[in-house]
Write a structure and sequence with these properties.
Chain lengths: 173, 626
C-alpha cells in the first residue's frame, strides 16, 4: 500500500529530532548531512523539512542511466541500489525539489526509503506533538483524487518564501 | 581516540592570519570535560601567572568557543563562549543554543580558540577542513538580521548547491551586532537573530578582535561514541521526560513575566525598587493570542522547544521579531524599565537582538540610568531627553546610544558597575548604591529578598560567575539534577548542554548519557566531590586575581548589591529584606562546602588534594593564600 509523508511546515519547531532518528537508523550515527530528512533554515523560524515526496511520475527513477533507482512495490518509496549507483547526480537534476543528494562519505544518492513503511521521523514528530510530519496511508488510493492531494517536491528556498509571508507577514528572505 | 570528542581544537590567530589545529589530550578532557571546564583550564595554563595584566579587550585575550562531549547528543545543542570577561575580569562560561556547535563538531573540531586581532574586520569560515579568514567590511556596522542574512546568502550562493551533488543545508553562524564592534561591555555573541551568549560580555571580546562572525559547516557525523545503542536509548528517555514539562513547553519562560512578580515577588521593577506587580497585560495570554506566530521553536534535538516566535504584524512596531521574549528579557527590558505593554516589550527586545546587546546587562544599566534620572543625579542635559519609567521610545533611543557609544551611551556602555563608578566621580555622589550588580555583572532577574524564588542570599554574591542567574551559588551544592545551581550549571556548561531542559531530568540519566558517550565512568559523586571544587577553585582564583581595570576584594565584594538590604516596599512580601547575619553564615557555609576558607580562598589542603599545586603557588605568590 503506497504511503507518503505529508508535511505542515508551519508546525515544524526546527527541533531536528527527525534528523537525529533518521541518521541513527540509516547510518548508525547522528549525522545531519546524511539524514534522509533535512531541516533547512535559511531564515530563523522558517524551518523547512526537506525529503522525498514520491512524485506520481518519479522523474528521478526515470532519469537514472544505471537503473539504480526503483520503486518499492509496497510503500511507493524510491529505492537506491548502492551497488549500481555511481553518484552521477542525474536524479538530483531531475528532481523538481532537488531532494536527493550525494552521501557525504559513501558517494551514492540518498533518498528517503520511508523506513519500509514505518518512518522514524514521523514517529518522533508525532510523539512530541508537533505533527509537522504526518504519515498518510490510504487503503485504496484513487489516482485521480487522493494521490493528487500529495504535496509536490519543492525547493526549500521556495517553501521558505511562502512561509515567510505566512508567518512574518512579509518576505524576509 | 577519545569517544565523544574530535580530539582537536581549531586555533586561529587573527594577528598573523594563521590557522592551526591543537590536539586535546585525553587526561585534560577527562579532568575538565569541555566548555567552561576546559576554558578555565586553557585560560589558567596560558595566562595564570600574568592574569592581572591581560586586558579582556586587548589583543592578548582569547575568545574561546568550546563544545563538550554531550553537544549534539544531549537534546538541545549549545556552545560555550568564554575568555577573560570584560565584565567580571574572571572567567565566565556563557552558552548559546543553535546548530552552530553541531556543524562545528561535524566539521571535525571540538572548539575554536581565537587569538590576536585582525587589522581589518574579518569573519572566519569553516567548511570541514577548509578554514578561511574572510573580509567582513561589507557587514561591519550592520545589525543582526542583515548580518545573518548576508552571511547565509553568501554561503548558500557559493556552497548551498553543488552541481551533481545536491543541496547542502545552511551553515551555523555566530556573529556580533554593532554593540560588539564598539566593544560595549554588555555586548553578546549572537546566533539565529535572537539567541545570545549573554553573560560575560564576549561580544565585546569578539569585536576587539575585529571578528564579525564565524560561519561553520560540517558534513561528517558527530564524533563516535562508546555505545551508540545505549546513547540512543538514553536520548529517547530524555525526550520522554521532556514531554512532561508542560509549562516550559507551552509558555516558555514567558509565564514568569507575571508569575515571578505576582507569585514569588522577585522580579525587578523600576531598577529593583520593587519586586512585585500584578499587571495583567504581562500574562502570556496576549502573547499567545496576538504575537506568537510559532508556538514551539527549538534547537538541535530539544523536545521542550521553550522558544516561541513573537512577530508584530501591524502598528508602529510592525516587522519586529524576537523570541518569546523569554522571562529575563521581559523582566529586564519590561518591568525593570516600567514597561508592561506586550508590543513595547517585543519591540525593545527585538532592538536588543538587532544591536547585539545583552537584555539583562543592558536592561539593568538602563534601569540604573532611569533611577539616577528619577533621583535627579542625571538630568536632561546629561542624557539629552527625559528618561521616565515606561517610556519605550526613550529607552530604545538610549539603548541605541549605548550600542553606538553616543553621548552618555559611551559611559553606560561600560556596564552598570563601571558606569556607576564613572558617574560617581563625575557627579560626586555614590551611584554604586543604585547599581544592582555583583562583581561587574548585573544580577539575573530573580530577586532574593522574598525568599520564594530558586535563588537565595548567597546566589549572586558568592558565584564565580558573579551576577549570573544560570550559575547560582546555592547550598547544598548537590541537588540530584543538572540545574541552575553552580555545581549543576558547571556540568551543563562543561559537557555543554542546555541547563533549561536538563533541570527537568534526573541527574543520573544525564550522567549515564555522558558515560555512554565518553566511557569516562564519571559518577555524580565524582562530579560533586572532585570536578566541582577543581574547576570552581580555578575560576575563583582567576576572579580574585582580576585586573587590570577591576579588582575584587574577598568578602567585601562577595556581597549583595546594597538594594537587596532595603526592604521590599510593596506586594504581599512587603518589608522582606536580606538578613545580613543569615547571609554571612550561609556564605561561610558555601565556601566551606567547596573546601575554601572563610574568605572564599581555596584552602591549601583542598588545592593539594585536587592536584592544583600551581594554583596554590600562584595564590601564595600573590599573598592571597595564608
Amino acid at each position: 500500500m503506497p504511503i507518503w509523508i505529508a508535511r505542515d511546515y508551519v508546525r515544524c519547531s526546527g527541533c531536528r529530532k527527525c534528523e537525529i532518528v533518521c541518521s541513527l537508523k540509516h547510518e548508525g550515527r547522528i549525522w545531519p548531512e546524511a539524514s534522509r530528512i533535512r531541516i533547512f533554515m535559511y531564515v530563523p523560524g522558517l524551518e523547512v523539512p526537506h525529503l522525498c515526496t514520491q512524485c506520481v511520475d518519479y522523474p528521478c527513477v526515470n532519469s537514472c542511466p544505471f537503473k539504480a533507482l526503483s520503486i518499492d512495490e509496497n510503500t511507493g518509496a524510491v529505492r537506491v541500489d548502492k551497488e549500481k549507483c555511481t553518484g552521477c547526480g542525474k536524479c538530483i537534476e531531475a528532481c523538481p525539489g532537488a531532494v536527493p543528494f550525494i552521501h557525504p562519505r559513501d558517494g551514492y544518492a540518498v533518498i528517503c526509503d520511508l523506513c519500509g513503511g514505518d518512518p522514524e521521523c514521523v514517529k518522533v514528530c508525532e510523539e512530541v506533538g508537533y505533527n509537522a510530519l504526518i504519515l498518510v496511508k490510504l487503503e485504496k488510493p484513487r489516482l485521480d483524487f487522493d494521490i493528487l492531494k500529495k504535496g509536490y517536491a519543492r525547493k526549500p528556498i521556495d517553501v521558505t518564501k511562502d512561509l515567510s509571508i505566512l508567518l512574518y507577514g512579509e518576505e524576509v528572505v | 581516540m577519545v569517544y565523544g570528542y574530535n580530539g582537536r581544537l581549531l586555533e586561529v590567530d587573527l594577528s598573523t592570519s594563521s590557522v592551526k589545529e591543537v590536539e586535546l589530550n585525553e587526561d585534560t578532557l577527562r579532568m575538565y570535560i569541555g566548555g567552561r571546564g576546559l576554558a578555565t583550564k586553557i585560560l589558567w595554563d596560558r595566562f595564570g601567572r600574568r592574569w592581572d595584566s591581560i586586558d579582556p579587550l586587548g589583543e592578548e585575550n582569547l575568545l574561546l568557543l568550546l563544545t563538550g562531549p554531550l553537544t549534539g547528543y544531549y537534546p538541545g545543542a549549545r556552545i560555550c563562549v568564554s575568555g577573560k570577561s570584560p565584565q567580571s575580569n574572571g572567567v565566565i562560561g556563557s552558552t548559546v543554543s543553535s546548530e552552530f556547535p553541531v556543524e562545528l563538531r561535524c566539521a571535525g573540531y571540538d572548539g575554536i580558540v581565537v587569538t590576536g586581532r585582525a587589522e581589518k574586520p574579518v569573519y572566519i569560515s569553516i567548511f570541514n577542513d577548509e578554514v578561511d579568514i574572510r573580509d567582513a567590511s561589507v557587514i561591519w556596522g550592520k545589525r543582526g538580521r542583515e548580518t545573518l542574512a548576508y552571511l547565509v546568502k553568501d554561503w548558500v550562493d557559493r556552497y548551498g548547491w553543488r552541481p551533481g551533488r545536491g543541496l547542502l543545508k545552511e551553515p551555523g553562524v555566530l556573529y556580533i551586532g554593532p554593540a560588539g564592534e564598539k566593544m560595549v561591555r554588555t555586548a553578546v555573541v549572537m546566533s539565529k537573530w535572537t539567541h545570545a551568549a549573554g553573560y560575560g560580555g564576549y561580544g565585546a571580546v569578539m569585536g576587539s578582535k575585529n571578528l564579525k562572525a564565524i560561519v561553520a559547516k560540517g558534513t561528517n557525523p558527530l564524533p563516535e561514541v562508546k555505545d551508540i545503542a545505549e546513547t540512543e536509548r538514553l536520548i529517547r528517555e530524555v525526550w520522554k521526560t521532556h514531554l512532561g514539562f508542560n509549562n516550559l513547553r507551552y509558555r516558555g519562560t514567558s509565564a514568569g513575566f507575571l508569575s515571578v512578580a505576582a507569585a514569588t515577588s522577585s522580579e525587578p521593577v523600576r531598577n529593583w525598587q520593587e519586586e512585585w506587580h500584578d499587571r495583567i497585560e504581562a500574562s502570556t495570554a496576549y502573547y499567545e493570542a496576538r504575537l506568537w506566530v510559532k508556538r514551539f521553536w527549538g534547537d538541535f534535538g530539544c523536545a521542550i522547544t521553550c522558544l516561541k516566535i513573537a512577530c508584530i504584524r501591524s502598528g508602529r512596531f510592525r516587522g519586529c521579531i524576537t523570541d518569546n521574549p523569554d522571562y529575563e528579557m521581559q523582566a529586564y527590558l519590561g518591568s525593570n524599565l516600567g514597561i508592561f505593554d506586550p508590543d513595547s516589550v517585543v519591540y525593545i527586545c527585538s532592538q536588543a537582538d538587532e544591536l547585539g546587546l545583552c537584555g539583562i546587562q543592558t536592561g539593568n544599566v538602563l534601569g540604573f540610568a532611569a533611577e539616577l534620572y528619577e533621583k535627579g543625579i542625571l538630568d536632561e542635559s546629561d542624557i539629552g531627553f527625559p528618561l521616565r519609567w515606561g517610556d519605550t521610545e526613550a529607552f530604545a533611543k538610549l539603548m541605541h546610544m549605548i550600542a553606538y557609544r553616543d553621548g552618555i551611551g559611551d559611559i553606560l556602555a561600560e556596564g552598570t558597575y563601571r558606569a556607576a563608578k564613572i558617574i560617581s566621580s563625575k557627579k560626586g555622589v555614590d551611584a554604586l548604591r543604585y547599581a544592582v550588580q555583583v562583581k561587574g555583572v548585573a544580577v539575573g532577574a530573580h530577586g532574593i529578598r522574598s525568599g520564594l524564588d530558586y535563588t537565595m542570599e548567597t546566589s549572586y554574591a558568592c558565584s564565580t560567575q558573579a551576577g549570573d542567574h544560570t550559575s547560582v551559588a546555592n547550598i547544598p551544592l548537590r541537588s540530584g539534577r543538572v540545574d541552575l545551581r553552580e555545581s549543576g550549571a558547571l556540568f551543563a556548561d562543561s559537557a555543554v548542554l542546555c541547563a533549561f531542559n536538563s533541570f527537568s531530568v534526573e541527574g543520573e540519566l544525564v550522567f549515564r548519557l555522558l558515560d555512554s558517550v565518553t566511557g569516562f565512568g564519571i559518577t555524580m559523586d565524582d562530579w560533586y566531590n572532585v570536578y566541582v571544587p577543581r574547576i570552581l577553585s580555578i575560576q575563583r582564583a582567576l576572579l580574585l586575581i582580576g585586573g587590570p581595570d577591576a579588582y575584587w576584594e574577598p568578602i567585601k565584594d562577595d556581597d549583595n548589591p546594597p538594594r537587596f538590604y532595603e526592604p521590599l516596599p510593596s506586594g504581599f512580601k512587603a518589608k522582606a529584606v536580606v538578613d545580613r547575619g543569615k547571609f554571612e553564615n550561609l556564605r561561610r557555609e558555601y565556601f566551606e562546602s567547596l573546601g575554601w576558607d572563610e574568605r572564599g580562598i581555596p584552602r591549601l589542603d583542598t588545592l593539594v588534594k585536587l592536584g592544583l599545586m600551581d594554583v596554590a603557588d600562584e595564590l601564595k605568590r600573590r599573598g592571597l593564600l595564608g
